[in-house]
Amino acid sequence: MDGNGSERFETVIVGGGQAGLAVGYHLARRGRPFVILDANERIGDSWRTRWDSLHLFTPALGDGLPGWRFPAPRWSFPSKDDMADYLEAYAARFDLPVRIGVGVRGLTREGGRFVLDTGHRRMEADRVVVATGANRIPKVPPLASELDPSIVQLHSSEYLRPSQLRDGEVLVVGVGNSGAEISLELSATRRTFLAGKESGQIPVRHGTVRSRLFFRVMRFAGNHVLTRGTPIGRKVGPKLAHEATPLIRVRAKDLAAAGVERVPRVVSVRGGMPLLDDGRVLEVPNVIWCTGHRTDFGWIDLPIFGQDGQPVHDRGVVGSEPGLYLVGQVFQYAITSDVLPGVGRDAEYVAKHIASTVREMGAPVGSP
Predict the structure, then answer these.
(1) Which domains does the chain possess?
(2) Residue 151 and residue 273: Cα distance in Å, rounded?
(3) Which stretches in the chain have pLDDT values below 50?
């Protein structure tokens, strides 16, 4: 604590999910002091609050963080609660200093140090790692506000179970993995419409022996081929990173067999009801928006953004603001940078960079 009531740290990691914990692990291995701030009430809550039936799309083989493999059979698919509990246990296992219930509302720079506004206490840091994830804010089309107020509307991040909905039909908007899985679940109890353009599907049945080879190949390609360090990665990586992910667990024929009715995209509202691209109006009492998320960097008041509104960085190192880092961003270095199989490598790169700059400045190991 300094004279103005601020707490001072060598490094503050904002976000206690898989990206932030992985950075903490690598900093701890190098003997560097840090603190991790997480707005949730428990480590892993970002997973716990997702829909009840969700399981990870990658096998446990690829779900572990540095230093500790996921404690489940290699080819099993952990539930979202399994993942949440693993993250909580990971922080305890490596004694990572996480402060829960502490959200960061603002990040600025004063006098050569970063200043973090948590709403309760001012914190200062020589270095800050933004590990809040690639997608934070639910994205819903503007026309949602024009729908009849009697319609129950949920974003996929708010959907937990069928009992949240009114009796009757449901329209699910968005044919990504979330939309497909939620549609399949809802079709067991009600007539379900699924709107949007399909993004394809993986060429093997999820969970089969053939899929094991497929996931190994895709993991290798995602980590080592489709990167910013290869010509093909630089050419197609940015495009692939922002395209919808092909269907992984649920296939088109599974949806058809379950009675899910595919309809064109929603283009407008007529009489308070969704209007489809083919001119039909769906009179439904429920709509679930599986339309993705957007990044939120509005809390960072620093000149680090490009014309596209995204931070400019090199493998997570923000050159325009020495001491500022990113982890867990889309295509940060590889196509897997924002998911579990790839976040550990980026975390290690950033931690190494932090440790090397501290040594150059002559700070002793373990200094605050």
Answers:
(1) 7-136+295-361 (3.50.50.60), 138-201+246-289 (3.50.50.60)
(2) 9
(3) none
